[in-house]
Please model this.
Amino acid sequence: MNYSFRLAGQQDLPAIVDIYNSTIASREVTADTEPVSVASRQAWFDQHNADRRPLWVVEQQGADGTASILGWLSYSDFYGRPAYAGTAELSIYIHEDARGKGIGRYLMEQAIEHAPDIGVHTLLGFIFGHNQASLKLFDAFGFERWANLPRVATLDGIERDLIILGKRVA
Model:
């Protein structure tokens, strides 16, 4: 596996948004129902910082020496109050051509290992109950089902459950 991750820079935001938008049609990954714009994600991007809530891109070097972004991972505030500073929500998104190749596992390994370095002791995943691939990934890393919010989202007229998974990492 010749992947590497790095902090996302402003120049990466279009690729991050493209990968995010590629998941909308499946109705399995995000509650957005229409593509988002780069401009609409700028404030979200700006909320990330290397010291507390990093946003990483994972890339692979091509034979010609150029790197291509295969996915991204973000740590986000769980709840904006100071007492929850040690808890972060993880989001992992993989380019559609790179799914099923171990990149999610790679990012999860890095996220768990890095969490204590940024003061995070608890990681959360918010995953639709019908998103079996993401549930399987989080399960493989020992995340437990901490909450089931039944039928809280409606996608194309179908009510969907939201599962909150958690893991104590420090």
